[in-house]
Amino acid sequence: MATKKRILFFCILLSLLCPLYAEGIENTFKQRIEWSSSEGAYQYKLEVAAEDSENSNFYTTENNFYELHLLAGKYKYRVYVYDFLGQESARSEWSHFIVNKASVPQIKNLPSAIKLPANSTYLVLELDIEDVAAAALAELINTKDSSATRGALVVAHPKNADKDFDREGSEVLSAKEVVFHEIEPGTYSLRITNPSGLSATSAVIEIQEAEPPMEVVQIDEVPEEYYSAIVPPKEEQKEEEPKEPPVEEEPEPIKEEPKVIAEAEPVQPVVKEEPKEEPKKEPPKEEPKNEEKKYLELNFLAGGGIIWSPYSGNIIKDHSDSIILPSLDINMAWLPFRFGENQKLGFELNGIGTIMGKNATLYTEDLYLALMQLSILYRHRIFLDNLYISLKLGGGVAFFYQYVEYLSYYNNRGQTQKTTFLLPSATVGTSMYWLPAEHIALEVGVSFSHVFNKTIRMGLLNPYICLGLRF
Q1: Could you tell me the pTM of the whole model?
Q2: What's the mean pLDDT in 104-113?
Q3: How many other CB atoms are found less than 10 A from the CB of residue 384?
Q4: Can you tell me the distance from the alpha carbon of 144 to that of 288, in angstroms, rounded to the nearest whole number?
Protein backbone atom coordinates (compact mmCIF):
# COMPACT_ATOMS: atom_id res chain seq x y z
CA MET A 1 0.00 0.00 0.00
CA ALA A 2 2.85 2.42 0.84
CA THR A 3 4.50 1.68 -2.49
CA LYS A 4 1.36 2.54 -4.46
CA LYS A 5 0.98 5.79 -2.51
CA ARG A 6 4.49 6.70 -3.54
CA ILE A 7 3.66 5.95 -7.19
CA LEU A 8 0.56 8.16 -7.03
CA PHE A 9 2.52 10.97 -5.39
CA PHE A 10 5.23 10.69 -8.06
CA CYS A 11 2.65 10.94 -10.90
CA ILE A 12 1.09 14.07 -9.37
CA LEU A 13 4.50 15.68 -8.81
CA LEU A 14 5.58 14.85 -12.37
CA SER A 15 2.46 16.48 -13.85
CA LEU A 16 3.15 19.67 -11.85
CA LEU A 17 6.76 19.93 -12.94
CA CYS A 18 6.40 19.04 -16.65
CA PRO A 19 5.05 22.48 -17.77
CA LEU A 20 8.16 24.09 -16.28
CA TYR A 21 10.63 21.90 -18.18
CA ALA A 22 11.61 24.73 -20.52
CA GLU A 23 13.06 26.75 -17.62
CA GLY A 24 15.16 23.84 -16.39
CA ILE A 25 16.00 22.30 -19.74
CA GLU A 26 19.70 22.78 -19.10
CA ASN A 27 19.50 20.22 -16.27
CA THR A 28 18.86 17.47 -18.82
CA PHE A 29 22.41 17.73 -20.14
CA LYS A 30 25.30 15.97 -18.46
CA GLN A 31 28.81 17.32 -17.89
CA ARG A 32 31.57 14.72 -17.90
CA ILE A 33 34.81 15.48 -16.04
CA GLU A 34 37.78 13.18 -16.81
CA TRP A 35 41.32 13.02 -15.46
CA SER A 36 44.39 10.85 -15.92
CA SER A 37 44.53 7.63 -13.94
CA SER A 38 47.03 7.43 -11.11
CA GLU A 39 49.04 4.28 -10.37
CA GLY A 40 48.10 2.70 -7.09
CA ALA A 41 44.91 4.72 -6.87
CA TYR A 42 42.11 2.89 -5.09
CA GLN A 43 39.56 5.68 -5.08
CA TYR A 44 39.11 9.27 -6.30
CA LYS A 45 37.28 12.19 -4.75
CA LEU A 46 36.11 15.01 -7.04
CA GLU A 47 35.66 18.49 -5.59
CA VAL A 48 33.50 20.91 -7.62
CA ALA A 49 32.69 24.52 -6.73
CA ALA A 50 31.33 27.61 -8.40
CA GLU A 51 34.02 30.08 -9.52
CA ASP A 52 33.09 32.76 -6.97
CA SER A 53 31.89 30.43 -4.21
CA GLU A 54 33.69 28.96 -1.22
CA ASN A 55 31.23 26.06 -0.90
CA SER A 56 32.23 22.82 -2.62
CA ASN A 57 30.50 19.57 -3.49
CA PHE A 58 32.39 16.28 -3.24
CA TYR A 59 31.82 13.12 -5.28
CA THR A 60 33.49 9.75 -4.77
CA THR A 61 34.21 7.28 -7.57
CA GLU A 62 36.54 4.46 -8.53
CA ASN A 63 36.69 5.57 -12.17
CA ASN A 64 38.80 8.34 -13.68
CA PHE A 65 35.69 10.30 -14.66
CA TYR A 66 32.42 11.56 -13.22
CA GLU A 67 29.17 12.83 -14.79
CA LEU A 68 27.35 15.82 -13.28
CA HIS A 69 24.18 17.86 -13.85
CA LEU A 70 25.20 21.51 -13.45
CA LEU A 71 23.42 24.76 -14.21
CA ALA A 72 24.94 27.31 -16.56
CA GLY A 73 27.87 29.09 -14.97
CA LYS A 74 31.60 29.14 -14.30
CA TYR A 75 33.09 26.35 -12.17
CA LYS A 76 36.36 24.92 -10.91
CA TYR A 77 37.34 21.42 -9.83
CA ARG A 78 40.20 19.35 -8.47
CA VAL A 79 40.75 15.63 -7.84
CA TYR A 80 41.98 13.83 -4.71
CA VAL A 81 43.67 10.39 -5.02
CA TYR A 82 43.35 7.81 -2.22
CA ASP A 83 45.23 4.53 -1.84
CA PHE A 84 43.78 1.23 -0.65
CA LEU A 85 44.36 2.27 3.00
CA GLY A 86 42.12 5.29 2.51
CA GLN A 87 45.00 7.77 2.76
CA GLU A 88 45.27 10.76 0.44
CA SER A 89 48.20 10.19 -1.89
CA ALA A 90 47.87 13.08 -4.36
CA ARG A 91 45.84 16.17 -5.09
CA SER A 92 45.52 18.08 -8.37
CA GLU A 93 45.50 21.84 -8.90
CA TRP A 94 42.27 23.71 -9.53
CA SER A 95 40.98 23.48 -13.11
CA HIS A 96 38.38 25.88 -14.49
CA PHE A 97 35.52 25.30 -16.94
CA ILE A 98 32.29 26.93 -18.17
CA VAL A 99 28.86 25.31 -18.52
CA ASN A 100 26.92 27.07 -21.26
CA LYS A 101 23.16 27.47 -21.10
CA ALA A 102 20.92 25.33 -23.35
CA SER A 103 17.56 26.71 -24.45
CA VAL A 104 14.64 26.01 -26.77
CA PRO A 105 14.55 28.73 -29.47
CA GLN A 106 11.58 31.11 -29.39
CA ILE A 107 10.24 32.24 -32.82
CA LYS A 108 8.07 35.36 -32.73
CA ASN A 109 6.52 37.88 -35.15
CA LEU A 110 6.99 35.71 -38.23
CA PRO A 111 4.81 36.92 -41.14
CA SER A 112 2.34 34.43 -42.56
CA ALA A 113 3.14 35.47 -46.14
CA ILE A 114 6.05 37.20 -47.85
CA LYS A 115 6.95 38.06 -51.45
CA LEU A 116 10.28 37.40 -53.10
CA PRO A 117 12.14 40.39 -54.56
CA ALA A 118 11.69 40.89 -58.30
CA ASN A 119 13.89 38.66 -60.49
CA SER A 120 15.63 37.18 -57.43
CA THR A 121 15.63 34.10 -55.20
CA TYR A 122 17.32 35.98 -52.35
CA LEU A 123 15.06 36.20 -49.27
CA VAL A 124 15.41 38.07 -45.98
CA LEU A 125 12.97 37.09 -43.22
CA GLU A 126 12.45 39.82 -40.64
CA LEU A 127 11.27 38.43 -37.30
CA ASP A 128 12.23 38.05 -33.63
CA ILE A 129 14.14 34.95 -32.48
CA GLU A 130 15.22 34.52 -28.87
CA ASP A 131 17.30 31.98 -26.94
CA VAL A 132 19.65 30.99 -29.77
CA ALA A 133 23.40 30.50 -30.01
CA ALA A 134 25.73 32.13 -32.52
CA ALA A 135 26.15 28.75 -34.22
CA ALA A 136 22.41 27.97 -34.40
CA LEU A 137 21.12 26.39 -37.62
CA ALA A 138 18.26 28.05 -39.55
CA GLU A 139 16.32 26.03 -42.15
CA LEU A 140 13.23 26.47 -44.31
CA ILE A 141 11.35 23.16 -44.53
CA ASN A 142 9.23 22.66 -47.66
CA THR A 143 5.81 21.35 -46.60
CA LYS A 144 5.40 19.33 -49.83
CA ASP A 145 8.60 17.28 -50.00
CA SER A 146 10.12 18.05 -46.55
CA SER A 147 13.31 19.30 -48.20
CA ALA A 148 15.41 21.72 -46.14
CA THR A 149 17.15 24.91 -47.30
CA ARG A 150 19.77 26.31 -44.98
CA GLY A 151 20.02 30.00 -44.22
CA ALA A 152 22.21 32.40 -42.27
CA LEU A 153 21.03 33.60 -38.87
CA VAL A 154 21.94 37.24 -38.15
CA VAL A 155 22.64 37.04 -34.41
CA ALA A 156 23.03 40.09 -32.17
CA HIS A 157 26.32 39.64 -30.26
CA PRO A 158 26.46 41.27 -26.81
CA LYS A 159 29.28 43.72 -26.10
CA ASN A 160 29.93 42.38 -22.61
CA ALA A 161 29.75 38.73 -21.55
CA ASP A 162 27.61 37.71 -18.59
CA LYS A 163 29.49 37.22 -15.34
CA ASP A 164 27.86 33.85 -14.68
CA PHE A 165 28.39 32.12 -18.03
CA ASP A 166 29.67 32.60 -21.56
CA ARG A 167 26.89 34.37 -23.50
CA GLU A 168 28.66 33.82 -26.82
CA GLY A 169 28.62 30.05 -26.33
CA SER A 170 25.29 29.87 -24.52
CA GLU A 171 21.89 29.73 -26.19
CA VAL A 172 20.63 33.08 -24.88
CA LEU A 173 21.23 35.39 -27.85
CA SER A 174 18.63 36.98 -30.13
CA ALA A 175 18.27 37.52 -33.87
CA LYS A 176 16.22 39.83 -36.08
CA GLU A 177 16.86 38.41 -39.57
CA VAL A 178 17.39 35.13 -41.38
CA VAL A 179 18.89 35.24 -44.89
CA PHE A 180 18.25 32.54 -47.51
CA HIS A 181 19.51 31.99 -51.07
CA GLU A 182 17.89 30.05 -53.92
CA ILE A 183 14.34 30.04 -52.49
CA GLU A 184 11.44 29.11 -54.74
CA PRO A 185 7.80 30.14 -54.15
CA GLY A 186 5.82 27.71 -51.97
CA THR A 187 4.80 26.95 -48.38
CA TYR A 188 7.50 26.47 -45.76
CA SER A 189 8.10 26.17 -42.03
CA LEU A 190 11.06 27.84 -40.33
CA ARG A 191 13.09 25.54 -38.07
CA ILE A 192 15.77 26.86 -35.70
CA THR A 193 18.14 24.30 -34.11
CA ASN A 194 20.62 25.18 -31.37
CA PRO A 195 24.00 23.39 -31.02
CA SER A 196 22.55 21.54 -28.01
CA GLY A 197 20.03 19.85 -30.34
CA LEU A 198 17.02 21.75 -28.98
CA SER A 199 14.91 23.15 -31.80
CA ALA A 200 11.66 24.97 -32.58
CA THR A 201 9.50 24.97 -35.72
CA SER A 202 7.27 27.87 -36.74
CA ALA A 203 3.83 27.87 -38.28
CA VAL A 204 3.51 27.55 -42.06
CA ILE A 205 4.46 30.65 -44.07
CA GLU A 206 3.71 31.26 -47.74
CA ILE A 207 6.49 32.59 -49.97
CA GLN A 208 4.90 34.20 -53.00
CA GLU A 209 6.36 34.94 -56.40
CA ALA A 210 7.23 38.58 -56.99
CA GLU A 211 5.07 40.59 -59.37
CA PRO A 212 6.83 41.84 -62.52
CA PRO A 213 8.06 45.42 -62.12
CA MET A 214 6.00 48.17 -63.71
CA GLU A 215 7.65 49.83 -66.70
CA VAL A 216 7.46 53.61 -66.46
CA VAL A 217 7.85 55.24 -69.89
CA GLN A 218 9.07 58.82 -69.72
CA ILE A 219 8.90 60.82 -72.98
CA ASP A 220 11.12 63.89 -73.12
CA GLU A 221 10.04 64.98 -76.60
CA VAL A 222 6.87 64.23 -78.48
CA PRO A 223 7.60 62.80 -81.95
CA GLU A 224 6.89 65.05 -84.88
CA GLU A 225 4.44 62.47 -86.22
CA TYR A 226 2.21 63.23 -83.24
CA TYR A 227 2.06 66.93 -84.10
CA SER A 228 1.57 66.26 -87.78
CA ALA A 229 -1.97 65.13 -87.07
CA ILE A 230 -2.71 68.48 -85.42
CA VAL A 231 -0.30 71.02 -86.88
CA PRO A 232 0.63 71.20 -90.55
CA PRO A 233 4.25 70.28 -91.33
CA LYS A 234 6.86 73.02 -91.08
CA GLU A 235 7.61 72.75 -94.77
CA GLU A 236 4.03 73.70 -95.58
CA GLN A 237 4.32 76.66 -93.24
CA LYS A 238 7.43 77.90 -95.02
CA GLU A 239 5.71 77.64 -98.37
CA GLU A 240 2.78 79.64 -97.13
CA GLU A 241 4.96 82.48 -95.84
CA PRO A 242 5.42 84.20 -99.24
CA LYS A 243 1.69 84.11 -99.81
CA GLU A 244 1.01 86.04 -96.62
CA PRO A 245 1.44 89.60 -97.97
CA PRO A 246 -1.36 89.59 -100.58
CA VAL A 247 -3.84 88.12 -98.15
CA GLU A 248 -5.03 90.33 -95.32
CA GLU A 249 -6.24 87.49 -93.17
CA GLU A 250 -2.83 85.77 -93.05
CA PRO A 251 -2.03 86.77 -89.43
CA GLU A 252 -5.05 84.88 -88.14
CA PRO A 253 -3.85 81.33 -89.04
CA ILE A 254 -0.36 82.22 -87.80
CA LYS A 255 -1.77 83.09 -84.38
CA GLU A 256 -3.91 80.03 -84.23
CA GLU A 257 -1.05 77.64 -84.93
CA PRO A 258 0.91 78.23 -81.70
CA LYS A 259 -2.33 77.95 -79.75
CA VAL A 260 -2.84 74.48 -81.15
CA ILE A 261 0.72 73.56 -80.26
CA ALA A 262 0.26 74.91 -76.75
CA GLU A 263 -2.86 72.79 -76.32
CA ALA A 264 -0.95 69.71 -77.35
CA GLU A 265 1.74 70.17 -74.68
CA PRO A 266 -0.42 68.90 -71.75
CA VAL A 267 -0.41 65.50 -73.48
CA GLN A 268 3.06 64.83 -72.01
CA PRO A 269 2.04 64.56 -68.30
CA VAL A 270 -0.84 62.30 -69.31
CA VAL A 271 1.64 59.82 -70.77
CA LYS A 272 3.81 59.96 -67.64
CA GLU A 273 0.95 59.56 -65.18
CA GLU A 274 -0.43 56.35 -66.69
CA PRO A 275 2.15 53.98 -65.09
CA LYS A 276 1.72 55.74 -61.72
CA GLU A 277 -1.94 54.86 -61.52
CA GLU A 278 -1.41 51.11 -61.94
CA PRO A 279 0.52 50.47 -58.65
CA LYS A 280 -2.40 51.96 -56.74
CA LYS A 281 -4.57 49.11 -57.97
CA GLU A 282 -2.38 46.53 -56.23
CA PRO A 283 -4.29 44.58 -53.56
CA PRO A 284 -3.44 45.52 -49.97
CA LYS A 285 -1.05 43.33 -48.05
CA GLU A 286 -3.75 42.51 -45.53
CA GLU A 287 -5.01 39.59 -47.65
CA PRO A 288 -3.21 36.74 -45.82
CA LYS A 289 -5.06 36.34 -42.56
CA ASN A 290 -4.43 32.69 -41.87
CA GLU A 291 -3.58 33.34 -38.24
CA GLU A 292 -4.36 30.99 -35.40
CA LYS A 293 -6.13 33.80 -33.52
CA LYS A 294 -9.24 33.20 -35.57
CA TYR A 295 -9.85 30.00 -33.57
CA LEU A 296 -11.61 30.19 -30.22
CA GLU A 297 -9.58 27.19 -29.01
CA LEU A 298 -12.73 25.32 -28.00
CA ASN A 299 -12.64 21.52 -28.19
CA PHE A 300 -15.53 19.06 -27.99
CA LEU A 301 -14.44 15.41 -28.11
CA ALA A 302 -16.12 12.11 -27.36
CA GLY A 303 -14.89 8.53 -27.43
CA GLY A 304 -14.25 5.51 -25.32
CA GLY A 305 -11.66 3.48 -23.52
CA ILE A 306 -11.21 1.01 -20.70
CA ILE A 307 -11.05 1.33 -16.91
CA TRP A 308 -8.80 -0.74 -14.68
CA SER A 309 -7.83 -0.34 -11.03
CA PRO A 310 -4.19 -0.96 -10.00
CA TYR A 311 -5.16 -1.37 -6.35
CA SER A 312 -5.58 -4.77 -4.73
CA GLY A 313 -8.99 -5.14 -3.09
CA ASN A 314 -10.40 -2.37 -5.23
CA ILE A 315 -13.94 -1.33 -6.11
CA ILE A 316 -13.96 -3.09 -9.50
CA LYS A 317 -13.06 -6.47 -8.00
CA ASP A 318 -15.67 -6.10 -5.25
CA HIS A 319 -18.54 -4.99 -7.48
CA SER A 320 -17.86 -6.49 -10.91
CA ASP A 321 -17.30 -9.88 -12.49
CA SER A 322 -14.62 -8.39 -14.74
CA ILE A 323 -11.42 -6.58 -13.82
CA ILE A 324 -11.46 -4.42 -17.00
CA LEU A 325 -14.50 -2.32 -17.88
CA PRO A 326 -15.42 -0.30 -20.98
CA SER A 327 -15.80 3.45 -20.53
CA LEU A 328 -17.45 6.43 -22.20
CA ASP A 329 -15.22 9.53 -22.28
CA ILE A 330 -16.32 13.10 -23.05
CA ASN A 331 -13.87 16.04 -23.01
CA MET A 332 -14.61 19.75 -23.39
CA ALA A 333 -11.59 22.10 -23.35
CA TRP A 334 -10.96 25.83 -23.63
CA LEU A 335 -7.42 27.22 -23.95
CA PRO A 336 -7.50 31.05 -23.86
CA PHE A 337 -3.87 31.58 -22.82
CA ARG A 338 -0.87 31.34 -25.18
CA PHE A 339 2.85 31.46 -24.45
CA GLY A 340 4.79 31.99 -27.67
CA GLU A 341 3.99 29.95 -30.75
CA ASN A 342 3.99 26.47 -29.18
CA GLN A 343 2.41 26.62 -25.71
CA LYS A 344 -1.23 26.89 -24.63
CA LEU A 345 -2.91 26.85 -21.21
CA GLY A 346 -6.56 26.50 -20.27
CA PHE A 347 -9.19 24.30 -18.69
CA GLU A 348 -10.82 20.96 -19.45
CA LEU A 349 -14.11 19.51 -18.21
CA ASN A 350 -14.16 15.76 -18.70
CA GLY A 351 -16.67 13.06 -17.91
CA ILE A 352 -16.03 9.31 -17.56
CA GLY A 353 -18.81 6.77 -17.23
CA THR A 354 -18.92 3.00 -16.78
CA ILE A 355 -21.16 0.22 -15.43
CA MET A 356 -20.10 -2.56 -13.05
CA GLY A 357 -22.18 -5.73 -12.79
CA LYS A 358 -21.92 -8.68 -10.44
CA ASN A 359 -23.96 -11.89 -10.23
CA ALA A 360 -23.70 -13.61 -6.85
CA THR A 361 -25.52 -16.59 -5.39
CA LEU A 362 -27.86 -14.53 -3.29
CA TYR A 363 -28.12 -11.28 -5.26
CA THR A 364 -27.31 -9.39 -8.45
CA GLU A 365 -25.79 -5.94 -8.39
CA ASP A 366 -25.36 -3.08 -10.89
CA LEU A 367 -23.14 -0.16 -9.94
CA TYR A 368 -23.17 2.92 -12.20
CA LEU A 369 -20.15 5.26 -11.93
CA ALA A 370 -19.87 8.77 -13.41
CA LEU A 371 -16.81 10.98 -12.88
CA MET A 372 -17.11 14.75 -13.51
CA GLN A 373 -13.78 16.54 -13.16
CA LEU A 374 -12.35 19.99 -13.96
CA SER A 375 -8.64 20.12 -14.78
CA ILE A 376 -5.96 22.64 -15.67
CA LEU A 377 -4.83 21.77 -19.21
CA TYR A 378 -1.38 22.51 -20.70
CA ARG A 379 -0.48 21.80 -24.34
CA HIS A 380 2.89 22.04 -26.07
CA ARG A 381 3.45 21.69 -29.82
CA ILE A 382 6.08 19.05 -30.75
CA PHE A 383 7.63 17.79 -33.98
CA LEU A 384 4.78 18.70 -36.34
CA ASP A 385 2.70 21.87 -36.65
CA ASN A 386 -0.52 20.10 -35.62
CA LEU A 387 0.74 17.66 -32.97
CA TYR A 388 0.64 18.52 -29.26
CA ILE A 389 1.40 16.81 -25.96
CA SER A 390 -1.08 17.56 -23.16
CA LEU A 391 -0.77 17.47 -19.38
CA LYS A 392 -3.78 17.61 -17.06
CA LEU A 393 -4.25 18.05 -13.31
CA GLY A 394 -7.48 18.63 -11.42
CA GLY A 395 -10.29 17.21 -9.38
CA GLY A 396 -14.04 16.77 -9.15
CA VAL A 397 -16.72 14.41 -7.88
CA ALA A 398 -17.61 10.76 -8.41
CA PHE A 399 -21.33 9.89 -8.58
CA PHE A 400 -22.39 6.31 -7.71
CA TYR A 401 -25.78 4.68 -8.22
CA GLN A 402 -26.10 1.14 -6.79
CA TYR A 403 -28.97 -1.20 -7.63
CA VAL A 404 -29.12 -4.54 -5.75
CA GLU A 405 -31.77 -7.24 -6.26
CA TYR A 406 -31.89 -10.15 -3.80
CA LEU A 407 -32.56 -13.58 -5.32
CA SER A 408 -33.25 -15.82 -2.32
CA TYR A 409 -34.88 -15.88 1.06
CA TYR A 410 -31.75 -14.61 2.61
CA ASN A 411 -32.15 -11.09 3.97
CA ASN A 412 -34.95 -9.12 2.23
CA ARG A 413 -36.45 -11.68 -0.12
CA GLY A 414 -37.82 -10.32 -3.37
CA GLN A 415 -36.79 -6.76 -2.58
CA THR A 416 -34.42 -4.32 -4.22
CA GLN A 417 -32.05 -1.81 -2.74
CA LYS A 418 -31.10 1.50 -4.39
CA THR A 419 -28.32 3.74 -3.13
CA THR A 420 -26.72 6.93 -4.46
CA PHE A 421 -23.74 8.82 -3.06
CA LEU A 422 -21.09 11.40 -4.06
CA LEU A 423 -17.36 11.31 -3.27
CA PRO A 424 -14.52 13.77 -4.04
CA SER A 425 -11.86 12.78 -6.56
CA ALA A 426 -8.50 13.93 -7.96
CA THR A 427 -7.12 13.25 -11.43
CA VAL A 428 -3.87 13.49 -13.40
CA GLY A 429 -3.32 12.59 -17.05
CA THR A 430 -1.42 13.04 -20.27
CA SER A 431 -2.35 12.69 -23.95
CA MET A 432 -1.31 13.28 -27.56
CA TYR A 433 -3.52 15.82 -29.36
CA TRP A 434 -3.55 15.87 -33.19
CA LEU A 435 -5.34 18.10 -35.71
CA PRO A 436 -5.59 16.05 -38.96
CA ALA A 437 -7.85 18.71 -40.50
CA GLU A 438 -8.73 22.33 -39.79
CA HIS A 439 -11.66 21.61 -37.45
CA ILE A 440 -11.11 17.91 -36.65
CA ALA A 441 -9.26 16.84 -33.48
CA LEU A 442 -8.06 13.41 -32.31
CA GLU A 443 -6.82 12.73 -28.78
CA VAL A 444 -5.21 9.57 -27.41
CA GLY A 445 -4.27 9.54 -23.75
CA VAL A 446 -4.44 8.02 -20.29
CA SER A 447 -5.70 9.41 -16.98
CA PHE A 448 -5.61 8.25 -13.38
CA SER A 449 -8.40 9.21 -10.96
CA HIS A 450 -8.39 8.57 -7.23
CA VAL A 451 -11.73 8.63 -5.39
CA PHE A 452 -11.41 9.46 -1.71
CA ASN A 453 -13.23 6.91 0.49
CA LYS A 454 -12.29 5.42 3.87
CA THR A 455 -13.98 2.06 3.42
CA ILE A 456 -12.75 0.95 -0.01
CA ARG A 457 -9.80 1.91 -2.21
CA MET A 458 -10.83 3.51 -5.47
CA GLY A 459 -8.16 4.17 -8.07
CA LEU A 460 -9.15 4.15 -11.75
CA LEU A 461 -6.70 4.03 -14.68
CA ASN A 462 -8.40 5.07 -17.93
CA PRO A 463 -6.66 4.76 -21.35
CA TYR A 464 -8.93 6.39 -23.98
CA ILE A 465 -9.25 7.68 -27.53
CA CYS A 466 -11.55 10.56 -28.52
CA LEU A 467 -12.54 12.27 -31.76
CA GLY A 468 -14.29 15.62 -32.08
CA LEU A 469 -14.35 19.21 -33.28
CA ARG A 470 -12.07 22.18 -32.71
CA PHE A 471 -13.24 25.78 -33.12
Answers
A1: 0.40
A2: 89
A3: 11
A4: 20
